[in-house]
Design brief:
It contains 6 helices and 16 strands. By secondary structure, it is an alpha+beta fold. This is Neuronal pentraxin-2-like isoform X2.
């Protein structure tokens, strides 16, 4: 390119000056001699060896050519830089596309992440940058045209101007093509991201609907209290557990429905243990002994008999005042007593187990003391209920959930093969009778 400028300069200079040929030659001859790059062309030497100063027109042309040369070099560097940028973008976009395909089967929950993968910048920014570069080149071309028009008597060589326009046109075409490609890729990535997000949302919605259906199917009881817990085997691993614990209490009433034909003894319908005292409250019928109520490991024998394989409603009451207790079966009070752990408050923060007697809080069960049968409507109050209230529950004329422990589905867990099943206790009891 630099040699081209020098050749053009010499051709132009040959139109106004003459270079002597061989001695004795007639006429005028024009000789083009290659001049090394960087040679000062601001002056010429005549045939006598005297230095001649350049004319203003030649000086202006020289400045124009120098400016054109610098402009061309800058444009060349810009083109190289843009080619590098385009190559980098092609590489990054190819990697992004490959990465997006490899992650096509994965489910992403974080939608705020950049879906363009590891692209160093957004395609919109790249498009804007390329557009600015193209506009800058156009501005330079207009500046050169304006410079040529303002130069008095100076003319820009047509072939150089055409070459510059051709290069700029090619660059503009390449930039526009790349801009179009980037816009298409950006649109494609956006569409793929939108489709992926839609698929993920649809999957989540399906899962939520399925969960809702399962929850509805598990809630098969007509009401939260219409279910029973079945403990069919005498083992040390079948049991139920009440999720709620007890506050400190100075009196209580415990009522439940029982059905068992186990012998000898029905086992332990329920037990309440606290740290330091596993037998804080226990109802047990073990071996050939009668049913017993334990409070703080103190014992009172109850005149109850429920091992005939029918449903029975039983209630026991106790108050710390003189340790007074009562025992009810099917709404009838069958026994009372006192001095059962008098003036002892029931300790809080323990564990209520259905079907097993605790040797440590929540565990170490003994199979010989396990309850065998079915139980329902285990409710507990922090006061002594009136006989009329107990009778109403026993004959199914009223239902009173416990204010400390109510019998509800979500409040009862079963373990080791124990099961929960739907039960309308009053209808089932009438059928038994």
């Amino acid at each position: 390119m630099r040699a081209l400028f020098v050749a053009l300069l010499l051709l132009y200079a040959s139109g106004s000056g003459k270079v002597a040929g061989a001695s004795g030659a007639k006429g005028n001859r024009f000789v083009c001699t290659a001049v090394p790059a960087g040679t000062d062309l601001s002056c010429s030497v005549d045939t006598s060896g005297r230095v001649q100063s350049t004319s203003p027109q030649e000086e202006e042309l020289r400045n124009i050519i120098i400016q054109l040369r610098e402009t061309i070099l800058q444009q060349k560097e810009t083109i190289v830089s843009q080619q590098g940028t385009i190559k980098e973008l092609n590489s990054k976009l190819a990697r992004c596309e490959a990465d997006a395909k490899s992650r096509g089967s994965a489910r992403r929950k974080d939608y705020s992440k950049n879906t363009m993968g590891d692209l160093p910048r957004d395609p919109t920014e790249t498009v804007e940058q390329l557009g600015k570069t193209m506009q800058s080149l156009k501005d330079r071309l207009e500046s050169l045209e304006q410079l040529r028009a303002n130069t008095s008597g100076g003319t820009l060589p047509n072939d150089l101007r055409d070459l510059l326009k051709h290069r700029l046109t090619d660059l503009e075409s390449q930039l526009l093509t790349r801009v179009t490609e980037l816009e298409e890729e950006k649109s494609q990535l956006y569409n793929e991201t939108t489709a992926h997000r839609q698929r993920t949302e649809n999957t989540l919605n399906s899962l939520l609907e399925r969960i809702t259906e399962l929850e509805k199917s598990n809630s098969a009881f007509k009401s939260p209290e219409d279910f029973k817990v079945s403990l069919p085997l005498r083992t040390n691993y079948l049991y139920g557990r009440i999720k709620k614990s007890l506050p400190e209490m100075y009196a209580f009433t415990v009522c439940m429905w029982l059905k068992s034909s186990a012998s000898p003894g029905i086992g332990t319908p329920f037990s309440y243990g606290v740290p330091g005292q596993a037998n804080e409250i226990v109802l047990i019928e073990w071996g050939n002994s009668p049913m017993e109520l334990l409070v703080n490991d103190k014992v009172a024998q109850l005149p109850l008999s429920v091992s005939d394989g029918r449903w029975h409603h039983i209630c026991v009451t106790w108050t710390t005042r003189d340790g007074f207790w009562e025992a009810y079966q099917d709404g009838e009070r069958l026994g009372t007593g006192e001095n059962l752990a008098p003036w002892h408050p029931i300790k809080p923060g323990g564990v209520i187990i259905l079907g097993q007697e605790q040797d440590i809080v929540g565990g170490r069960f003994d199979a010989t003391q396990a309850f065998v049968g079915e139980l329902s409507h285990f409710n507990m109050w922090d006061r002594v209920l009136r006989p009329i209230d107990i009778s109403a529950m026993a004959n199914c004329s009223a239902y009173m959930p416990g204010n400390v422990v109510p019998w509800v589905d979500v409040n009862v867990e079963v373990f080791g093969g124990a099961t929960k099943a739907a039960l309308e206790i009053c209808e089932d009891r009438l059928f038994d009778s």
